Each structure stands twice: as C-alpha cells, then as structure tokens.
Amino acid sequence: MSLPVAVVIQQLQEPDSVVPILKSLYTNLNALCHSKAEANHLVSRTLNLMSAHLAYKKWCGVVITEVLVKNYEILSGSGLKFVNALLKILETANQSTDIKLFNATVRCLNKVCDEIRGKPTLTREILTPKLPVIIQLYLNTLDLNPELIIESLYNLMSHHPTTFRPFANKLNSRLVEYLKLDFSSFPSTLKFHISRTYALLPIIEKTDADKVWSNKLNGVINEIVDILSIFKDLIDFSQDSELLSLISNPVFKVIDDARIFPFLQIDISKPETLLQLSTRLETLFSLLVGFISTSLGMCVKFPLGKVISLMEIIFSINTHYLPVKRDIRDEKAKALTRSITIKIQESSLPILNALTTTFQGPMIIYLTNILLVLETSIPMNKKAVDSEEVLNNEQFTTKLLSTVSKILQLVQLYQEPQQLVRFVEAALILVEPRINVNGSSSSNIDKANNTKKTKKKNSQAIPMADLLSHSHLFDGEIPAETIDTVRTFVNSVITRTELPSTQHYKIMRYLIIEAVKSTHFSYNNSMSSELKRLLINAVTYPGFEKVSLLPIVSSIMGDDPLISVFNNPRFPPVPQLIDKSVESDSEEEEEEEETTVLPETNVLSDILNKRTFEYANDTVDTDGKRLKTEQKVPQIHLQDQSESISSLKYQPQDVLKFKESDTPKVAAKSPHQVSNETNTSKHIPVTQMSLTPSHASTDAGEASGDESDFEMPQIDIDGDSDQE
Amino acid sequence: MEEVIFYVGQGDPTDKQSQESYAFAQSVHGSRQLQMFRNADCAKNGAAFTGVGIGEKAFIASPNKALINVYSFGKDGIDQRMPVPEQVNCLAVLKMNTSPSDQSLNKPSYRTPWLLAAGSKTGKVYIWDILSGELIFAKDVHYQSITKIAFSKCGTFLITGSEDSRCLIFKTIELVSIFNKDHDTNVKPYMSITDHTLPVTDFYVSNGLINDVSLYTVSIDSTLRVYNITTRQLMHTFVLSSSIECVTVDPCGRNMYLGLTNGQIRVVPMFKVNNMNLERAGKFGEILTVPNDPELQNTLTAHDSAVSQLEVSLDGMSLISGDVNGNVYVSDITSKQIVRSFKISTAITHISAIVCPEEAIKNDLVADKRSRLLPPLKRVLQGLDQVSYEVNVEIPEAQTHSDISFQHWLDAQASDELSFKIGTTSSTGTTTTTSSEDGQKLAKLSTAYAELKAKYDELLADHRALL
Lengths: 724, 467
What we know:
The complex is a heterodimer of chains A (724) and B (467).
Chain A: H1 5-11, H2 19-27, H3 36-50, H4 55-68, H5 72-91, H6 99-116, H7 120-140, H8 146-159, H9 161-164, H10 168-180, H11 188-200, H12 209-228, H13 241-247, H14 275-293, E1 299-302, H15 304-316, H16 331-359, H17 367-375, E2 380-381, E3 384-385, H18 387-392, H19 394-408, H20 421-431, E4 434-435, H21 439-452, H22 462-469, E5 475-476, H23 480-494, H24 501-520, H25 529-540, H26 550-557, H27 561-567, E6 575-579, H28 587-595, H29 599-607, E7 618-620, E8 626-628, H30 641-646, H31 671-680, E9 685-689, H32 693-703, H33 717-720
Chain B: E1 2-9, E2 22-27, E3 33-38, E4 47-49, E5 57-61, E6 67-72, E7 80-83, E8 88-94, E9 115-120, E10 124-129, E11 134-140, E12 146-151, E13 157-162, E14 167-171, H1 172-176, E15 191-193, E16 200-205, E17 214-219, E18 223-228, E19 233-239, E20 244-249, E21 255-260, E22 265-269, E23 271-274, E24 277-280, E25 286-289, E26 299-300, E27 307-312, E28 318-323, E29 327-332, E30 338-343, E31 348-356, H2 358-362, H3 369-372, E32 391-394, H4 406-422, H5 435-466
Parallel strand pairs in B: 19-25
Antiparallel strand pairs in B: 1-2, 1-31, 2-3, 4-5, 5-6, 6-7, 8-9, 9-10, 10-11, 12-13, 13-14, 14-15, 16-17, 17-18, 18-19, 20-21, 21-22, 22-26, 23-24, 27-28, 28-29, 29-30
C-alpha cells in the first residue's frame, strides 16, 4: 500500500527508511501533478535532504530525485535545481566520500540527463549549459568508480559528440593510463567499457571521423601483429611459409607514432617475461573487440580481410604443428611458450565472436577458412583427438566450441561434415563421465595392484583402496557452462550438417542418456529446455539416420506439443466459401451468425490498420492518384466455428481430376459479374475455415452422443453486434 | 502494422529516358500510397526491395541500359546509378543477417544488403558484394536469357530460371567463398533442373526448415513442377491446359496460384479430401493433370490479359496479381472478389509484398549521403586479395536492456540503505558526527518521542471521553 503524498512529505523531514517512500512516490508519481503545492513541497524537501550534512540524508535525497524526475512536470519545473544539487555533491566527492552516495549521485545525474535528452527546450535550458561541468566532474572523479564513470562518459560522448570534443584528449589519456595498468586482470565489464569508449573516441572529430577511426583500428591490428612477430624468435616459423608471408605482409606494418603501448622487454633467460606477451595481446584484443562491436552511427570502412588474416596468424602460431626453436633449451621457457600460444588463441576468440555478430553475411565468405584454422587448435594424438589435452584445456576448448557454433549459425546448411568431426569429438570428450584422478595416480593404482601379490602391506595402497572399491565417489563434476556450450554446439551441428555415422550415433547416444537421466532424477520428470530443444532438433533434422529417433523421443517427452504434431500430423485448414443460403433457416442461428466473427479474417484485418476489409474498388492511375469508383460495400456474413462443424465443407473431392465438389457452388465469375453481385446478390459468399481431421472426428463423437473435450467457442453477442 | 506492395512496370520502349515510368509502394489494405519512385522501369523480375521505411533500398535494373538504379526509401529520384558490365534482366538481394542471431542488434540507419545477384540476357549470372562493391562471381550458366533469379529465404541457395528451359540451383557459400584455397571458379550447380521443355517463366521457393525447402517451377510448356531441393527430387508435376506465366504459393503451402497466359489465375489445392481426411494431392513423383475449370470453381478471372506477377498477402487470404496491361488487383482468395485495384500504363514486371510496422513509415528522416551511398559496383572480376578486403558498413549497435525493473532497483537501494544503517562502511567525509553521538542523539529523540506519544494518547483519551 502506498503512502499519501502528504505523509511522504512529512517523513522526508527525518526519513527512517527511504524504501517505502520510494515505493509510494513511484506508484503516486502521476498523482503528484494534481497538486502543484504538494509537488513543490516535495521537491524542496528533497533538495533539503541533498544539502544535508549526513551522507545518508544526501543519499536519500539523491535516490528520491531519481524517482521524481520521471514525472515530467517536476523535471521541467525543478530539473535545473536537481542538477545543481547533484553537481554540488559530485564537486565535493573525493576518496573519503561514501561510495554508495557517489554511485547514486552519478546514476541519478545520468537518469536526469536521459530524461531531458530528446526534449528540445529542456535540453537547451538545462542539459546543454551543464554538460561541460558534468563531463569535467566525471573525468575528475573517474578513479572513484571507473566502471560507472566510463560507462556514463560513453553515453554522453555518443549523444553529445560536439560538446564532448574539448574533453576527448583528456579522456583518451585517462583510458590509455588504464590500458597500461594491469588491464588483463580488470573485471570484464570494466574492460568492456574501456575498450568501447576507446573505440568511440573518433566520433568527436569534426571531419573525417571515419578515417580517424580506421587509422586507430589499423594501429591496433598492426600492433597485435607486431607483437605476434616476436614469436618468430620462439617458434620455428620456417615450416609454415604461409604464416611467414602473412606476418610479413606490408599492410601490417606498424607506424611508430600510432603505437599505444611502449616496447616490451622480453628476456629469454627470464621465461616469466614471456607472460607479458599474452597480457599485452589480451589488452589489444579487447580493444579490437571494442572497435568491431561499437557503433559509430556512421558508415565506416572495416578491414574485414585484415582481421580474418590476423586470426589466421594467431591460430597458425600453434605448437602442435610448429616446433619451439632449438636455441631455446630451457624447459620452463618451452612450456611457457606452449601455454602462452594457447592462452593467446583463447583470448582471441572473442574477436571472432564479435565479427560473427556484427557482420554475419560477409563472414560466410571466410567460413570454410575459419573452420579450417580453428580445427588445427584441437590437440591430436596420432589420428584421434587427444582427450587428456582437451580436458586439460577445458576452458579453451569450451570457448572454441562456442565460437564454432556461433559461426555455424551463419548458415542453414553446411555440407562439409568432415571439417566438424574433430570439434564433435572434442565436445563429446568434454561431457564424458570423468574420474578425478590423473595419469600418475592411475599408474599408482596399477602399482598398488601388483604389490598386493607380494602379500606385504603397502602403505601407498591404502589411499587407493577407496578409489578401487568406490570409484563412483571420484566421478568429476562437469561444469554447467561446459555442458551448456556442448549442447549449444551439438544443436548447431545437427541442424546444419549430416555427420558421419560414428559421430552421429555418439551424439544421439549422449542425448538419449542425458534425457533419461534428466527426467529420472527430476522430481517432476522434467528436463532442461536446452535438452528438450536438442531432442526435438534431433527428430526434425534426422541427418544420418537408419532408425528413427522419434519413438524414443516420443516415449521420453510425448507430451511436447511439437512431438505431438509430429506423431499426429495435420494439414493446415483451407479457407473456404460457404453460400449463405446453405445456412440454417432458424432465426436463432441467423442471429448467432450475425453476431459472430470468424477469427482469422477479422482479427487480421483488425491488426492491419485496425479496420475491416473495405470491399471497394479503388483504382490508382499512373500519377498515383486514387480514382474513386462507386461501389457499395457488400455485407459480409461471417460464420462461427460452431456453425462450420455442423456443415463440414471441404475442397473438391479429388484434386487429380478436379471433380465438382459437393459444396454449394460459389460465385467465381468475371470481374463485372462479381461487381454486380456485390451490389445485388443475396448469395453473398461467406469466408469460413474448413476443419482439420481432428476437429471432424470430435464432431462425429458429439453427434453420436459421446463425451468430448471439444469446447464450443464462446460467443460475445453484445460485443460484435454493431459491426453489422 | 502495414502490408505494402511494390509494383514496377516495364516502361515504354519509346521513352528512352524512362521519363514516364514510375514504381509505387502502396498499402494493400488501405488507400495510402507510401512512396513513388521516378524513372523506374525494368524487365520481368528486374527489381529487388530490401524493405519499407527510411533506411531501406530498392534496386531496379534498367530495361534498356547496362545500369542498375538504386533508390532510397523516402527519396523519389534515383539515388545512385550503377553501371554494370551488360544489361541485366532480373535482380535479387540477400540481406546481411542470413540466420537469426542470439544477440539482438539495433537496425543501423541504413540497411545495406550483403549480396546483389543479377541475371543477364546472355545467360550470365553476376554476384556483387554490395558492402565492398566487388564483383565476386560472373559466369555464363545459361544458354539463353535468365528470366528470374532469387535467393532462398535462408540465403543458402541461389536459383536461376532461364529461357533455355533449365533451372539451376547453386549453393551461395560455394559462390562466395572466393578466399578459400580450394575455391573453384568454375562452380558447378548444386542441382540442375532440365525437366521443362519450354522456357521457365517463374519459380517460387518455399520457406521452412532446410530439409523441407521446395522449389515450384513453371514454364510456357504448361507444367508446374515441385522439387525438394535438399533431396534433389521431383515430387509432383502438374499439367495445365494453358502456358503458365507466374506462380506463387500460400504461406503454409495449402494452395498454389498460377498466373496463366489467358489471364486466368488458377488455384491448385495441395490437399484433397479422402473419407473426411485431408491428404496431400498426388503421390510422390506423380504427374497430375489439372482439368479445365469451366465453372470457375478454382479460377480467378480478374485479368483480361496474361498475368505476369503474383504474390500472396501475409494472411494468405488475398492474392496480389499484375498483368501485362498494367493492372494490379488485390483479390480475396476465398470470395474471388477484387478488393483493390491499381493501374500503371505498362506491363507489370515486378510485384512484392512486405509487412512493416506503422512506425517504419512515419519516420521521415533521411540519413546523410555518406551513410546512404553504396560503393560503386565493379565491372570486372578481379582476383581479390584476402587481406585487402574491406567492407563499408555501419556497425549495428547492440540492443541494451537498461530499463531494469523498479523492483530490482528498489532492492538495490534497500541493500545500500541497510549498509548505511549497519554502518559497515564509514560514511562521508563531510560529516563529523560519530556513531556514538548518533546513538546518544537517537536515544534522546526516542525518549522525547515516547513522552510525546504518551501525552498524545492521554489527550486522545480525554477527547474521546468528552465525546
């Protein structure tokens, strides 16, 4: 229950709790306008709170303002006062300020700006004069909550690029400062806000903003390739001539002035310095993703081929195929090089995801190339996928599968299933039951077994005893994220391609086992929507299938509407004409007929321009002018569904020969005849939907006195009577 | 919501500059004319529209010049004239988003399609990447003029029909994978249809799952053939008594509508009744003869001359048809009455129906030229370097759902308030009040309040006693 405004005003003097006040204000917001005096009183109390000494009171004032500005009258009357009060709080903000108060103030100020934006007079009177002060204060307080402030600055810059122009350099330098900090360890939302704000900065340019944007983007790409070329000294590139030619392509040449970061200091004798490579690249990848996904609001020239080539370079630097250079003998450095390459590949996957989301169609040009390149990052052991390696790099494999499924979703049909086999194998390895013992432990088990024969009590075997007798206790849990990703991937694959039989049956086996398990262990025999979708897709896209999966799926989830339609196929009802003369003579039925509306025709015509069909002949001449032709609008009698049940009428009996049907003959005459008929004829055709067989059978049941679930549609006689 | 039809005429051959030629965007259910395009005429199927409203484009191939004219919605005149290697007959565009994505993106101010395909009089197919202007495919695929070119709705296939009686189906991915090392410039069709004996005049590609996509082809040889594209099988053949000019199919495949040379529109149902059950017409692979319909039970007779274009409305209840005399009729399919009619002076060569929200039409701001104009289409097929491939595109903005519910916001405030009250975080630098002082003050106020309350209660009791 909301409090009356008068009570709220009273409580604002010394608020005990602001939550009920906020709730009341939110629900009474429109009622506030009825009494201007109360509204003014409320505003002045709120302003008083904001100018109080106590942080709590200030905070109360700020959050109340956030609700009040939703009311246009209050906003237009007191908007400026609110902005001034909020700016005053921001001016005094420093490290010792309560962060909750600071956050609330910034959010409230953003809210006020959002509410004012788009309203020309308010913008001119309040927002435009105060905007420079707001931006300046935001820049000054950036360090208090970088995530919130950068997000706010992004919004201000995208909406007011001209006003933002004087502050762009300062923001740029602040952003670069953040980038040069330990960017890779920042929270992901902060990384996202920094990269997209950096990408949006060229919007403030007076002329050729697109060119500035393009130069900045190319600078980032070139700097990435420049760092990747360091791997020349770690990995033997000479075995991959294509990689060499790509990496030395002149389009990737870095212009020193355009560099964002200083040179890296890497010393092979200190292997830990190699880690700088991955952290620097991760930062640059984030920036690149920002450029790909941030809208500048104008047409830009995007170097799609260059970015795809960059991805090819990243995935070609692969220690599965290229050996580490012989001069590096330190095992630690070798191991680090291997793990860094995987880490780099993992952190570059968001680039592909962003490209796929943004460009869609043009990405199809590269689809085969990309899948080929990504395929190389699946570790192989001889001819099979290396399951141990896949599990060791679970996070990378999961992200890789997610990207592949996203790329596959660009097409509806992909007829090169061989390219997907490795991914499918890797996906199935990830969801196989796991045992939480590593290779060395399992060798210990063997040892333990062998030593038993010596009849000596081996203390080493004691910890292994549980593992041998209760192995199920050691089953590793598969992370939910992995399961979700694998299921999404499998869904993308089975709906787009016909996999080889081995992989097809493996997937089907997995699906059925999971479905049975899921329903069995669920209290109400339910399963996740993702798994349901997968099972349905397994039926609708049979792929390589000798024995249908439908019976199994029907047994597991027969109550699913789609599976039910699959098992009981029905054809769509066909629109039909019924001559009015066929209809019942009884007055009662006539009345019903006049007052009922056929759902399909009228509902649709209501949607389309909210008017019923105008049965008038309008002619438009070559000049586009409408020539009016006198024609009376015929009365269209529409029949209710219940009526249609008692007089089933179908299409002609036999399409092959198109015999005359038993249905009453319907006018199908020349335009002139039609025109005459619409004016004079009493036999006005009636639009009616014929029934599906299932309806027909229901009706038969009723006729024979059987009970049926079929419900007659409720007819609102009063509601439609004036439509005639 | 508004359903809009675009119709374009053939133009007068004597009017070289197409001064008297207009194309129109017209509401199907209202009398509203939404847009007129000047100097717009084309050969049969020689136009392609991306949609209705600001930001949408129309591509219309000039019928007597090697030119493709580009129009922007909201602007009557030609926006760009694109010279092409030869005169093209028919056009098709493929949008950027070939399949639904998980992430919702806002539509940019100008929707640029991805591919533009054209079929020429000499039987050559051209495909341009509109975003870069590059010609990425050009090849002689037919022996005679191409009559229609179209992408399947999902963009997986490109289909061409020609006067050489053949219909070819290509996989789009094979045509555009120009940077694939194994890319064969001599792309072979995915499926080649050679069953027709006379020129293929029109075809229709159905919507649905990729396994269910059907192709309906019609020809002057009076046959309609239905193929399953995925299985590459001929499913049905319907033989009519007159040459067929155009075809369209009900959105849920209930009826096929055939525009005949004699001006009739023949409705061919896909289902028949057998003992109260609906069955699909004809067995698999069967040849069905559609008999004459003297009583006009399944025939619409609105037109006096050959029907050149057909389209079905969104609800499947209206048929939009154009003829060689320039008449466009919107007819109610069940009653066979003409609901609405439009006329231009020359033969109708293109009709398409598009549904859009009301708001799309109201917005009247035209974007600046820099965003609106497309890069010119290249006229030569040149080996493109992968690294130098650039696309001109307005990056779409991700849809943000900033409007968190009030309850959610209130919960956040309640949480903040709680931390204020329990004093986990030391508050404000401006205040000097300590928590102990607060406590004392609170106790004092509480006592005062209790006293006041007691007095008030007493007064209230007295008052009640007096009453």
